[in-house]
Structure formats: structure tokens, C-alpha cells
Amino acid sequence: MSKHDDTNLLDRLNAATLSRRSFLKWSAAAGATAALTTKVDLINGIYPLEKALAAGDVQIMPTGCAHNCGGRCVLKAHVQDGVIVRITSDTDRPDDPLDPQLRACVRGRSYRRRVYAPDRLKSPLRRTGPRGSGQYEEISWEEAVTAVADNLMRIKETYGNSAIYSHYATGAGSLTNGSGNVARLLDLYGGRLGYYNNYSWAAIQAATPTVYGTQNTGQSRLDWLNSKLILMWGWNPAEMIDGTNTMYFVKRARAAGAKTIIIDPRHTMSAVGLADEWIPIRPGTDTAMMAAMAYVIITEQLADEEFVNKYALGYDADHMPEGYENAESFKAYILGESDGVPKTPAWAEEYTGVPADTIARIGREYGTTKPAMLYQGYGIQRRAYGEQVVRMGCTLPVLTGNVGVSGGWASGIAFAVSSESTPGAGFPSVANPVPYSVPCFSYTDAILRGKEMGREDGIIGLADDEQTLPNSIKFLYNCAGNCLTNQHGNINRTHEILADETLAEFIVTHDHFLTPSAKMSDIVLPACTWMETWGMAANWKYGPSRILMPQVIEPLYGTKSDYAIAAMIAERLGIYDEYTGGGKTEEDWYNEWVDKMVADNPTVYGDRDSFVERGSMTIPYQENPPIAFADFISDPEANPLGTPSGKIEIFSAALAARNNPEEIPAIPKFIIEWDSPWAPVAEKYPLQAIGTHYMHRIHSTLDNIDWMDEAFPQRAFINVNDAKERGIAEGDLIRVWNDRGEMKIPARVTPRIMPGVVNIPQGGWYSPDAEGVDQRGCTNVLTSEKPTPYAYGNTQQTIMVQVEKV
Amino acid sequence: MDDRSILYEARLNVYALLQRLYQAAPDAELLGWLAAEHPFLNFPIELDEEANAALLEVDRDCVVVSADRLVKDFRQLYIGPGAMRVPPWESVYRNEEHLLFDRHTLQVREAYARHGMEFTQIYRAPEDSLAIELEFMKVLTERLLRAVELSDPEAESILLEEQREFVNRHLLIWVPQFVALTQKQAETKFYRGLAGVLNGFLTWEGQTLALMLETA
């Protein structure tokens, strides 16, 4: 600087750009005002330079992806100086059928986009406009949790605990994050109206036990390698992820000689990558095709009648349950002896759109190939009469003797028997002191008319002298979920109900983003992601594994785990010590759980340090896994099923007792859906719509991840013929509507979907314009809130629509 | 006061003003001061024509606009809740993924560390927000003044070098996009104009710092 020619500096800087006089005047003015005082964000001196220079060191930390698809996968966070710079998965060890990789898909690998999204919630919010307006002001944690606690106390005092409800929510499943934290808080505070069922497989869970007395009717995926034929019925594991590494086992089964046939309205990713044949079928008609297959199997003498009548009730007139000797048997229904309509392939073609000879061929293949699996997906039972397809899918394996045999499969879909679970740990359980539960799909009714809801609405837990719930829902808690609105049937109706502040008086949400459900809330609390706290996850359904999820980075922006938020509320409710076990942090719990798991199961987990270092653990599969019902098949007298008769109940006396044969028949039947091509609604709305799981997201989680949108844009998939009729070309903006609502969405014109069917992948975030027309393709603007008749399950795949070019 | 000090002081005050206005919306007191003292009308630096128009736009709006309106616009633009219209972080503009916390955040963190500074919310929020980057430039300018005072040309040289690097490798790369987006999205003339001032000032900074170091 000594060389500077100071005197001419300003001139050299170009006199035209500087105004010396205003420099001085303005400088003095600016310096003189206290109004310009700023908050200091940079502080001096404490950051060691060596640390910055060492920033190149990358530490790889094990964590996981514990959202609610069917998988729970390993993620590895590459952390550089407190920042996640990269995410990889379980790829540095070989795949092995006895200990397969827990490899994540694109969803988990996109996680940086979620953690570091600019639009994450950063501060607690209080609503300042009408519910749904998205108008909020930032408030302190103190104010926010006080508002939640005050309203809990007020509503408990005014109405009682049964007016408090925490809705089904599965956006986070890492123990210290997720809705369980709120359930535990409310249970310690005197309880809440509970719920049962879920949005995934209510009909499976209710209907499978009517046949087998249990939900555990499947077996280890390792046994699939012994099958000769796998009917993948409406099942798309490559996209919906039915167990972390299920695709791998399907591939192994094919390599071992199994033929795979996909029956699905869509030519899915699984059809492309895992199937020998694709049979397109109209949605909601699967039971008709199965009935026609039964017709072929029975009339061509392929049915193992000796087997059926030994193990099951209700197949033919000679094997009916006591008291129902003259009721309609399964065989009578199939052959048309009772209703005059033989369920022939030609009859089924009318409904299914599948050529009769194809149906007959598949019936013969399934009837003659031993052993064979009929494996169902979940979407086919999220329908008007979802129970029927489940019960029919349980019946065909009985006809063909595929129950209790290796390589067979007893029911369409269910949990596997065997030791496929790993011992885990978790928060101490607390019983809910309130006895009542509502089917979760009827929760809006419990807001609107809870005090009128009784057993006929599916309410359970009522005392003998109680006819209805004592309360409607007044306090609505939504922790880590988007089922309040976005994922619930009939979103426009749902919004009307939630918008009325005299019904649900207080709504609170914990989330990472301002989701459509969060926008209906009075207080929104910003949760940290599981990468910012301590937790763990376990496999769902298949593959006995545990994934440790230690804290990878600090909670951003002062966000907190669901546990920490609930603990703050517990403090104001006077139950802090009970809730936190005497003040434990997330890390304290995590360490306690790991210690317990290792101490209780040394042979499973080995020593603590190596388990923690590895971060995940799969119990190697058994070479010869147990076969569901093998003991029952070998000795039915000694090993009766859990059904009332102890046998397989093709005819269910319990269902017959419901006295609603049209909608709850005692034997599985094809029932035409209330919204279908054969219902009056089809005149106005001739196309069937479905909302499938999409590679873009896990339900609605990750819908806001823009680069997933690049790879998997939200579009309405429509058949070329239907598009041509309507003058719709690829990429055109189309209008999809029915009496419940309307959306605008780009069209994907494709031969990879059944004519007459439109697919709008579920989970798009409801984004209405000023006229209430959704701009994002949220399937639930079109769906109904009407539950299935027996399970009270969701029916969000039963939709009729019309489509036109905008 | 010598020419260098005059220059540094002017820059310091511009940084102080811009940093404050991008940290939060002005309260009634500050808005009153802006309306009474007209710092934008009497801007200490001759900016280009476009920026001059922006200076006038802000200045006029200071007299008319309400503090509430500015709070609303500032929140919509830069805060949220949910999706803000104009994310105020460098990394959002510099990686394809439009994410926070990328290598540019770490570079900025390193620059602060080279001068013994650390973000108060380190690890809990990204340090490459506009207000913090402006604060960094402000602190370095304070130190330049001090270096002149102590006749420490070596320090002055290091500080100017750092400022030039920081402006050229960070602010001037992403702020133009931030400014364009703000000008499209802002509902008040105040924030539209302020963005123009910011752009003009940083352009001037780039040229000025280059010239100053050329004289070294």
C-alpha cells in the first residue's frame, strides 16, 4: 500500500462515479442514527482456522430412510464440516439372498433436497387468516407450545379427553420423530379418541382373518424361490416398494424358474422389469376375473376338491357351516346355480376387459402349475368392496391346494409367518385410558357428527349401555402427517369441515414444510428431520432388520424433534417427568435402546461398538423358512385355525350374521362398485380414475422435491384411444373432474394404461386456484370419503371422472 | 480524513444500510429516518443510470409506503412461511439442485474463518444469506478504516484482496439473479428499487476494488 498514490486515488477511481460531498454528508447521517442498529450475525474469533482448513475431511455416518413406503432403507450421510454433502446407500457389500442389501431408491437418495430445502419451516407459526389461507405469523416456541397446552387443557376441561384426537400420520418413523410421540403425550394426559385401520390395507387386515383367522398368512420371500408361477395381481413392488429388497427376491424367483404374470391396469415398472406377461384389466373388476378363473378350475376338474373340503368350509353344499346348510356355497355362486349367472370367462370379459380365452388360460395355468402364488397388491382393495378381492384372493389358493406348501401362497397379501422380526426397543408403552376408537378413514365424520356415531359407523370400545361416542372431535393433533386433508378422501368436503372453527376448535401440526394439512392448522410447529435428531427404524413386513439413525447434523433453524416438542408441551401440562422418563433427551433414549437391544440379544447384535459402527443389521434368513399353515395342513385337528370353526372359512358365518348379503356376502363375490362404468354415474363421468403410488414420492412426502419432479413429473396418464377421442395430445393441459372436484394437469398419453382408465398418481399437494380448481393433481379432489362396508377402509381408488382438453 | 478513509467510510455506510434492510424489514423508526434523511437520494456513490432510477424509486416509496406493507412484502419475498418468492441464500442460486448448504456455503464459512469470524448459528442455518455476506463485507470495511488509522498497508492489502475475491466469487455471481427475481416478485417499489440499488452498488464495488488493487 505504501506504493499507493493516495492523493490521486479517488480521481483514479473515476471521478464521475464518486460524489465526494455526498460521501461526507451521508456518512455522517448514517452513522448518526440508532435506527440502523443491526443484529450481529458474525462474531469474532472463536472459529479456529485449522477447522476451516480441515474442512475437506468427510465423515460417513450411517442413517436411514424411515418414511412410510414398504421399505426401510440404509442411507449413508457424507458429512463435511457439519454439512451433508452427499448421500449414498448400502452398496459396499455384496447382495445375498440370505442377507440382502438394504439399498435405498431415488426417494431416500434425494434426502439432501429435503433437509436443505429453502422452504423448510423454520419457526413456529400462528395462523392469522382463515384456515387454509396459508397466512401465518412467526411466534416463539414459548408462545406456540403454550397455545397448544392451553387449548388441550381447555378442551379436556370443557369436553373431556374423548374430544381429543391425533390423526393417523406416518410421515416419520424414527421413534423420536413421528406421531407416536404425540399419542404417548396425549395418553399420559388422560387419553384421546383412538383410531384403528390405516390408509394402506384396511380391507386386507379385516377380511383376511375372516378366512384364515390371522393376518400372518404369508412366508419369507426366500420361499418364493420355490414357486413355479407368481401371479403379481395389481402388485408393483418396483415402484411402491413392498419390502426394501422385494424386487431382488422376485428376480431370484424368476432365475430359479418361476413364471411371473402381472395383472394390472397399468404396464408398471414391475411389468417392465419383473414380469413375463402383462394382462391389462379394468380397475375394480379383479374379483370377477378371479371368479372366472375359479369357474375354469372347477369345471375343468382342476380344483383339489378333496383338499378344499378337508380344510375349508363353504366350498360346496355338503360342506357348509352348521346353521347355514342351505346357504349359497362358493361353488353354487361360481357355477351360477344360485343366481342363474355362471361366472364364466365370457361373463368376466364383460367387466374386466380381459379376453375370455386369456382368463381361461390364466385359470388353467394357476390350476395346473404347482406350486403357485397368487400375490395381491394393495391398491385393488382400497376400493368400494375391497373386502371381496381379499377374500377371493384367499379362496383361489385353497381351490388349488397352494395353502401350507412351500412355493405356494395362502392369501393375496399379508404378513409373513416365521421369525422375520428383530428384537427392538422403544419408549415405554402407555395405554390410552379412553376406550373408543374410530376407523381412521371416518375421522372427518367424527368431527362433524361424532356424538351421533355408533357401532354401525365402525366405532369400537363403546360400553354396553352406550350407543354413540360421548364427543365429537374438538382438538385435532396432526404430527408428521398429511392425512388431515391431502391424503384423505374428498378433499373439498374435508376442507369445509376443517374450516369450521366451531367443529374442530383447535388444530395443531408438526411438520417440516407448510403442507396442505399444515395449512389447515392453527399452530404449526417446525420439526427437525430425523437426520437432525436421534432415532432408529425397523423393517416393515419383510426382511428382519434394524437401522440405527444417530444424529447426523444439528437441528436446523431451531427446529425440534417431535419428541422434544411434545416434551415442551408435557412440561406445561405438568407431565414432563412421566413423558421424558425424568428428563431424558433423544440421545439418552437412543443410547438406552441400543444398550437394551445389545444386552438382550447378544447373538443377534454382537457387541455394541461394531453394531453402532455398522449402523444397520439384518438377521440372516433361515435357509428353510417356515411355511404358513404347514402345521394346520399336516394335522388340522391338532392345529386348528383362529377362525370360529377352526377351518378355512370360504363361507364366513360371522359375515353372514351381518345380514347385509348385498354388500357383505358370506362368500367372496364380485360386486359392482357404486362408482363404476356400470353405475348411473358413468353417463356423466365415463372414465375410471386411479391414484397409484409414484416413484416421485412416498404418498405425499417428497412431492415438493423439485428434482424428483423432473424425473417423475406429476401427470395424468391416459390411454392413446381416450386421448384421441378427446383431441388430447401428449403434454396438453387437461381438465379432470367429477361432482366432487376438479383439477388441471398435464396429460401423459400412453399405451401403457388400460383404455377407459386415467391414472393420477396419488400424493400431489393440493393447490387450488381462486376457483378451487386444483393445479397439482391431488387425486383426492376426485375421491369419496365413503368407507368399505365391512372393514370401514378407504375407497380412494373407486373414482369416475370426465376428462377434456383445457 | 484522507481519501482512502472517505472511500471506506462511504462503503461501510452503504454496507451497513443494505445489510440492515436485507436482514429484516424496516421498523417505523427506521422508515421515518429513511423518509426524513433521504439517504438514497443523497447516495454517496454515483451509480449507473439504472441504479440511479432505482435510488429514486426507493426514496420516493420511503415517504409513501407503510411499515406494515414492507413487512408483508419482505416476508413474502424472503421468509415464507413455506415457499418464499426469492430465497436469499447464495447456494440456492449456485447449485443445480437449488439447495441450501452446498460447497459455496462452506467456501463462505471459510472466508469468514480466515478473518476470525463465525456465524452465530453455525451448523443450524446457512451462513451464505445475503444479510450475512453483506455483514462480512461491512466488517472487513471497518477493518480497512482501522488499517488506515494504524497505517498498516499490509493489512489493508489483505483486506482489499479478500473483498475483491468475495465480491467477485460470491456476491456478484448470485446477487444479479436474486435481484432479477426480486424485481419480478416484489409488490412494493421499495424492494424493487432496493434490489436495483444493491445490484448497482455491487457492480461498482467490483470495478472499484479492481481499480484499488491495480494501484497496489
Structure description:
The complex is a heterodimer of chains A (806) and B (216). By secondary structure, chain A is α/β, with parallel strands linked by helices. Chain A is built from 28 helices and 29 strands. In chain A, the strands form eight sheets. A six-stranded mixed beta sheet of chain A has the order 6-5-19-18-17-7, covered by helices on one side. Chain A has a six-stranded mixed barrel with strand order 24-28-25-27-26-29. Chain A has a four-stranded parallel beta sheet with strand order 12-11-10-14. In chain A, strand 11 (259-263), helix 11 (269-274) and strand 12 (277-279) form a beta-alpha-beta unit. Chain B has one domain: Orthogonal Bundle (TorD-like), CATH 1.10.3480. Chain B contains nine helices and one strand; from the N terminus they run H-H-H-H-H-H-E-H-H-H. The radius of gyration of chain B is 17 Å and the shape is globular. Chain B has helices at residues 3-23, 28-37, 49-64, 67-79, 90-94, 103-114, 130-149, 153-185, 189-214, and one strand at residues 117-119. Chain B starts with a helix and ends with a helix. The chains are: A alpha/beta (806), B mainly alpha (216). Chains A and B meet through helix 1, helix 2, strand 1, helix 3 and strand 4 of A and helix 1, helix 2, helix 6, strand 1 and helix 7 of B. Strand 1 of chain A pairs antiparallel with strand 1 of chain B, so a sheet runs across the interface.
List keywords for this structure.
heterodimer; A: 806 residues; alpha/beta; Dimethylsulfoxide Reductase, domain 2; Barwin-like endoglucanases; six-stranded mixed beta sheet; six-stranded mixed beta barrel; 28 helices; 29 strands; 29% helix; 16% strand; disordered N terminus; B: 216 residues; mainly alpha; TorD-like; globular
In short:
The complex is a heterodimer of chains A (806) and B (216). Chain A is built from 28 helices and 29 strands.
